[in-house]
Structures are given as C-alpha cells and as structure tokens.
Amino acid sequence: MKNIILILMISFLGFSMNAQEAKKNKNAKYTIEVNGNCEQCQKRIQKVALGVSGVKTATWSIETHQLNLILNEEKTTVLDVKKAIAKVGHDTDAVKATNKDYDNLHSCCKYER
Amino acid sequence: MKNTMLFFVVLLSFPVFAQDTLQTVKIELGRKKLQKSLLKTTNTTVLSSHELLKAACCNLAESFETNPSIDVNFSDALTGTKQIKMLGLTSPYLLIAEENIPSVRGASQAYGLSFTPGTWVESIQITKGAGSVINGYESISGQINTELLKPIKDIPFFLNVYGSTDSRMEINTHLNKKLSDKWATSLFVHGNNRLSKNDMNNDGFLDNPLGNQINILNRWQYTNAEKGWVSFLNFRYMNDEKQTGQVNFNPNTDKLTTSSWGSEINTQRFDFSSKIGYVWPEMPYQSIGFQNAYNSHNQESYFGLIQYNIKQNSFYSNLIFNSIISNTMNKFSTGLNFTSDEYKEFVNTNDYSRKDNSLGAFLEYTYDNTDNFSIILGGRLDYQNRLGFFATPRLHARYNPWEGGVLRFSAGRGKRSANIFAENQQLFGSSRSFNILDTNGKIYGLNPEIAWNYGAGFLQKFKIFTKSADVSVDFYRTDFQNQVVVDLFESAQQVDFYNLKGKSFANSLQFEFNLEIIKHLNLRTSYKFYDNKTDYNSGSFQRPLQAQQRFFANLEFETHIKDKGQQWKFDYTFNWIGKQQLPNTTTNPIQDRLSGFSKSYSLMNAQITRTFSSTFEMYVGGENMGNYKQEKAILGADNPFGTSFDSSIVYAPVFGQMYYAGLRFKIK
C-alpha cells in the first residue's frame, strides 16, 4: 500500500513538472554581443558558454562579436551565460566583468572598455 | 502529375546528406589545394578540385599522382590500369566511396577507379588508418571519399578536351540548369578512346590497351535551407571496352584461339543512388540522413584462353542520425547499414556465383573540448552471411600540445572477404595456374581477412620568416590476423591462394615537409619507408611489387592573377621509387628470369597551364619525361601460350615518355 502511494505521488509530481516544463523552450535561440578580440577569446567564450549546463551550442564570431546560443530554458537562462562569461573577463550588455577578471586576460584579449 | 510523382519518388528515396553537404561547404572555404587540418580528429587530407588539375587528367586513379599519402602503381602491362596503394596495401584494403556510398568494391576492384572522370570531382578526402565506422567494416588501411560537383553550385557549361601522344583522347562536357531556387540538375558526359596501336618496346604487345569509354551521369539536387531539406538523385550509365594483347591480335578471328594472344575487357555499369538529409531548423546540430544505392556491374572478358565474367548487382542502404548529448562538445552519430551483393562469377566454366547480405548498426561518439583535444569512439555490430556476427571497434584521438602542432592516434579493426579473382585479374594475363589451397572457408574455400590497424602521427605548422611551412611524421602498422595470401613465390607457373599461417604485417613510416618558398611557389616533399612482410609457404618475403622506399617532391608555381583572369601555372613532380621485391621467376628458362629485386628508378612529370581568362585555359604536360622504361615488361612475350608467359610483373612504366595537351572552357 505504501508503495502504491509512493508511486502515485512520484508520478503525480512528475506530471506536474512536465506541465511546467512545456512552457519553456528547450531550444531557445539567442544572439548576444560579447566583447573580445581574437581567436583565444573565441575559444574562451565558447568554452565557458558550453560549460553552463543547458547550453547546447555556442559560437562566437571574431568579426561581429556576436555569440549565437541555443539553450534549454528549463535548465538555464541567458543571464546565467552572461554571468559565466563575465567571470572569465568578457563584458556583455547586462553583466560586466570585474576589473580583476578583466586584468587576468591575455594581452591580445584586452578589448577596449 | 508526373512531375509531382517524380518529386515524391525523389523525396522518398534519398535522405542522408545534410551533414555531408555541410562538410563540403567547409572544404570550399579553404583556398589551398591540399588541406591538412589541425583540428580534425582523423588524419585526413582534403584534395580540392584544383589539385586534380595538376596531373595529366583524367580519372580518379590518376588523380593521386601529386599526393604523397597515396602511391600510384601500374597494375599490369596489359590493361594499363593504375592501381593505388595506401600504407603499402592495395585498394581492396581501402574503403573507396563516392559521396559516402562505397563505390569501388567487389567486381569493380580492379578498374573501378578509372570509372570516375576527374572533371566530375569536387573534392577528395583521404583518411589514413582505420577511419570512421559509419560507412562499413571493410576498410583496413584507409578511406577515400570523393565528392562530386553539386548541381546547386555548378556552372552552366564546362568543356574539357584532352589528347596525348599515347593516342588517348578525352572529352568531358558538363551541363547545368537551375530549375528553381530549390531544384538544380547537372548532366555530365564523358568519353575517351584510344584508337591507334603503340608498341614502343617492340615486344609485339600493345603498351596501352585500345579502348573507349562512355560515361554519363545525371544528378538532381533539391535544397530547401529554410526547412532543412537536402536531397540528391543520381542516375549513371557507363560502358567501357578495352582490347589488349599482341599487336596483330584481331578479336574477330583470334578470340580464344592460339593464333595470337589477346584480351578484351568489356564492362557495363548502371548506378542509381539517392540521398535525403534533414536538419532540424530549430536544432541545427541534429540531422537525419537516408541514402540508397543500387548498381549493376557487368564485366565480360577473356585473357588469352581464359574467360572471366563477373556480374554484380548490389544494393546499399544507410540510415544515419546525428545529434548531441547536452551540448556540441558531445556529438554522436548512429544508424543502420544494409548491403546486398549478388555475384555471378565464372572463370572459364567454373561457377563461383554467390549471394552476400549484411546488416549492421553503428554508433560513433565524438568528444571535442573545443580547444585542444578530441576523441572519436566508434563501434559497429554486423551480421554477414559469410563473415558471421562480429564487432568492429575504432578509435581516433587528437591532441594539440601547443600552437600549430597536432598529435594523432588511431586504432581499429577491419574485416572483409577477398574477391580473389576480381582483385587479382592481372594474373590472368600469365600462364600461371590458379590454385586455392584451402577448402573449408566460406569464400572460395578461404576465410575472411581480418586486420588491426594502429597509427600515430605528429604534424607541426610553422612560419619561416613570413612563409608558411609544415612538417609531419606518421607511422602506421597493419597486423593481419587472417589474410588471403596471394603467393607468387612458389613458382612462376602458379599462383596459390591460402589462409595466412604465420605472420603478416605492413609497417609504413612517412615524413613530409611542405614549404611556401616565396609567394605562389610551393614545395611538397615526402619520404616513405615500408616494411610489408608476409609468411608464405616457401618462407617470409616482402610483399611483391612494393617499393620499400619512395621519395616524392612536387613544386608548383603560379603567377599573379591579372584583371581578366590571365595566369600561368607550372607544376613539376619528381618520384624516386626504390627497389621492389619481385615474384619468384627461378622456375623459368634463363631468358625469362628476373632478379629477386627490381632496380630503383625515378620519374618526372611536369605541366604548364595558361589561363587566358576566367573562362578559358589550356595546358600541356609530360609524364615520365626521363623516359624510363621497364626492360622486360612481359616475360615470355615471344611465346604467349608457353609456360613462362607473364604480363603481371610490372614495376615501372612500360610506355616511356608521354606528352599531352588539353583545354578547358567554362560559361559562368
């Protein structure tokens, strides 16, 4: 009897979670501007963006400074990605890197602030 | 109504190419003729169509002459067909595919590469070592994939005419039409012939076969980038006829008689293939592809008194799904392959007809840290009616220890059934008796061939002042667990086929150095060392007709392109080929004996291209300009029905120097 209740509870919980998830886009596309200069920046920005759980693709263009993202909104938000990027020294519109993190960048990556 | 139906058929039949198309686009971005990547996990070199313009022409077999990864040999003194080798192993140990559909296999093994005209080719990817599991389990020492010109990107009209002093003429015509923003079609027509007889070494035999080929390909491409669909449909017909043997041989009166020795090899082929690829528009990292190919290959031939006929009907199907696990650092491909081959094969009246089927599933996982490390783990499980149920594991890894450097490692297993007659057809041009010494196996009484291939390589790109250069070294070893040994050491009157009893391996070591000397002047050099040993019944020998050492150099120079497209291009290739183990000829009378090893020799090719405008260019060139000729190309040529006749021992050019000229005209 206990087991049945447990199963019922779990499945109920599961359902309600699904219902909530359905509202969020699992493949949401975003394009944000990230400050940076070179190939090294590209590697760093892409790597840290992909390191955020829920980010599926991340490509940053050296020419346009645009970062194209596809992410699962159930797991993360663009703000989380921006925060992660700022932590390794790169500014975005919403989140700026601390001076300390900016200073840690390699000389070729020191974009104009 | 009909059109709608056709559209439907196309859509239904063709799916796997979205991914390939994406790859191809990447390739075209590079301007270099030969591209070596620091980021690819596999040891893959990409040849662009510009690279193919550097050699005489003409078909796929000849297109590797300016490439150090592949050795182009001469298969025999009769057919003049060029055989290729990679890591010291002949083409049956390679997976040769056309747009990822295995193409040169089974019955087409001997001449298949000469059935794809060079002008049709957009790019060639050459992968050394085990290679991906996606296209099958047969590859052992490498994979060669050819991408043909894509109708969507092709130009409306292309014409190429070629003629050479060995009296070969070629004509290639391409027509292209864009039917809408989504549909495009191309029609390629190739014809070649050799009508006059040459016997430069006065042995009474033709140096090159008389022949003609007509080859027609019609392809259709559908692309809908917004919705994510790509589809290809190909129809192809080929007819190839060769006549060779003694100069005075007349097929009408002398066929299968002893009045003079001659041979005719006639091949007819029909191919149909389709691909459909779909990329999820909202998930560009996910795609599905489905490809199907049917071909019918019919070779009717005789060599002196031996008749050899082989007909192969094949069907190939491949379903592939590509996606990611959590993010694009973790990618995977998975899918199914189905292959069916129906052979009708006759050697004189002996019937070797058979039916083979195989079904397999594959999974390939790629991890890429987007920086300096990637690994591909691949595996497949197959069932084949003669090979049984078996697994094929393969692994590739890449690490960039520092800027411009890449370290690669690969290992993998391959398994295949040897088509002993089709693959060794050149031996029909001899008085050898064919003996199959085993009887318990399922393929001509023999067991399947199984080999492991391991390799490691290092490539470093760097700058000398401002000029780019690269240096690389790689080592590969192929270890045969079982091999169908082709034994030419027992005597000159027989060839024995049997299962390997001892050891057999092929080691290959290659150094390469490439340098841009000044702007527009490029040098490529390579040195190769092979150690390919097999335990034969009579002892352990190097595999015959394999040079242990080779040196290659290629120099290319281009002038600046002027406003209207005028340009000069110069190309020079030097090959030094070391001594080669020769088959045992000690059982022949003294005048028909060869020493144990051939002498080393060198070859020089050169070409000059003049581009008059972006639409018209002409070229002239020479091959084997040092005029090196094998002394005794055909043993026992004076008595072709005697016991020491052998046209299969060819280790050098038979014809001597050859000059050619051609033109290319485009309407853009």
Automatic annotation (TrEMBL), chain A:
Residues 27-93 form the HMA domain. Residues 1-21 form the signal peptide. PROSITE patterns: HMA_2 (PS50846). Keywords: Signal. It holds the Pfam family HMA. InterPro entries: HMA_dom, HMA_dom_sf. GO terms for molecular function: metal ion binding. This is Heavy-metal-associated domain-containing protein. It comes from Flavobacterium swingsii.
Automatic annotation (TrEMBL), chain B:
Residues 42-142 form the TonB-dependent receptor plug domain. One of its GO terms (cellular component) is cell outer membrane. Residues 205-624 form the TonB-dependent receptor-like beta-barrel domain. It is found in: Cell outer membrane. SUPFAM superfamilies: Porins (SSF56935). Residues 1-18 form the signal peptide. The keyword Signal applies. InterPro entries: Beta-barrel_TonB, Beta-barrel_TonB_sf, Plug_dom, Plug_dom_sf. The keyword Cell cycle does not apply. Keywords: Cell outer membrane, Membrane, Receptor, Signal, TonB box. It comes from the Bacteria. Belongs to the TonB-dependent receptor family. This is Outer membrane receptor for ferrienterochelin and colicins.
